[in-house]
Amino acid sequence: MLPEKMIELGTARSVIRELFEFGKKRAAEVGAENVFDFSIGNPSVPPPEKVNEIAIDILKNQDPVLIHGYTSAQGDAGVRQMIAESLNRRFGGNYDKDDLYMSTGAAAALTCCFHGLCCEGDEVIVFAPYFPEYKVFIEKAGAKMVLIPAEIEGFQIDFDAFGKALSPKTKAVLINTPNNPTGVVYSKETIKKLAQMLRDKSEEYGNPIYLISDEPYREIVYDGAQTPWVPKYYDNTIVCYSFSKSLSMPGGRIGYILVCPTVEDNKTVYAAIAGAGRSLGYVNAPALFQYIAAKCCEETSDLSIYERNRRLLLDSLREMGFHCVEPKGTFYLFPRCLEEDAMAFSERAKEFDLLLVPGDGFGCPGHFRLAYCVPTERIERALPAFKKLAESYKK
Ligand code: PLP
């Protein structure tokens, strides 16, 4: 017998995957240039040149045994030191290499945190809309995901619902800002209020509630927006970071976990997270990409391309009558559908060869996600299709 749950995870096609298959089929029928795929969050802008320069330099000039070898389980000490120093420069912390654990992207960072922090039956609070893999990761760690419905006016936090969901079983609260799928950045006020509620409840229950901050889009912000540095507002913060989006290298599988020195019992928490990494078989994050990330950790890909796409889509869709909360970051928009049923809306969009992801999978029906990490000319060519889609609802 094989575990049913794993078979299900390995065979069930996600909605995004379905759209991808549909796109391939339609491309064969009408030509790839006439299919407008906005489904996948794969960065379309190349990594900054420095990434390749550093990679070539490392490959040419450094000891191949070292660069292709194992590193310490928690990551190369020099790499962690460089990243800690960068964080101190940028956010004014007092971080050290021993607060950092290099991970195989944010996905592994999150799974290590959930496995390292949660005991069977613990709860992790997540805010809708959310990255759907969270549920898979949390449940695999034996914990329960408690979902707070979306606050659809601004996609900040519904604090009433959040207050009611907190309980002595709450081990951690997970936030993602800038957010996939809304693109919204939590304001300082939101973070401050969240932090105060967590402090109050931790004291009441006599246990720390950890705040896990999933930040793969931290630097991808527009119009001068800034992502608040969460550890500044809450001591028991664990940051999960990834270079997948900021450096456009999701295939490199590199990120890190920062267990802030202010976290209660931080050494034990760090040990538990490292133990989780070991038990999950991560061994160490990819060595070559650790060395690259350390030297490029203050770089980003050319964000002006995303910025241009964002403005073009947002202005055009609003003009057509779509309601969309202004996203200040990421490369996603999350407008309201033109009917209640997002699945039906996405189906109708397919008639115009628009591939749009219904919000249901993100825990927020009635909306759809547009990933605008695509060539700008795809957006320009897609606008008449969006117009036809909008007009089809006026008839
Ligand atoms: N968290 C969020 C919110 C994401 O959008 C993604 C990827 O799209 C991840 C985590 C996982 O990213 P990584 O490639 O670093 O594993």
Q: Would you mind describing this structure in some detail?
A:
The structure is a single chain. With 395 residues, the protein is an alpha/beta fold. It folds into two domains: 4-48 and 301-392, Aspartate Aminotransferase, domain 1 (Alpha-Beta Complex); 67-296, Type I PLP-dependent aspartate aminotransferase-like (Major domain) (Aspartate Aminotransferase, domain 2), CATH 3.40.640.10. It is 43% helix and 12% strand. It has 14 helices and twelve strands. The chain has helices spanning 4-11, 15-30, 49-61, 64-67, 77-91, 105-117, 133-140, 159-165, 188-205, 266-279, 287-296, 303-319, 342-350, 376-392, and strands spanning 36-37, 100-103, 123-127, 144-148, 170-176, 210-214, 237-242, 255-259, 332-333, 354-355, 357-358, 368-371. The strands form three sheets. Strands 2-8-7-6-5-3-4 form a seven-stranded mixed sheet, sandwiched between helices. It has a three-stranded antiparallel sheet with strand order 9-12-11. Helix 9 links the parallel strand 5 and strand 6 (210-214). The longest helix is centred in the middle third of the chain and has 18 residues, at 188-205. The structure holds pyridoxal-5'-phosphate (PLP). Residues 41, 105-107, 131, 176, 180, 214, 216, 242, 244, 250, 255 line the site of pyridoxal-5'-phosphate (PLP).
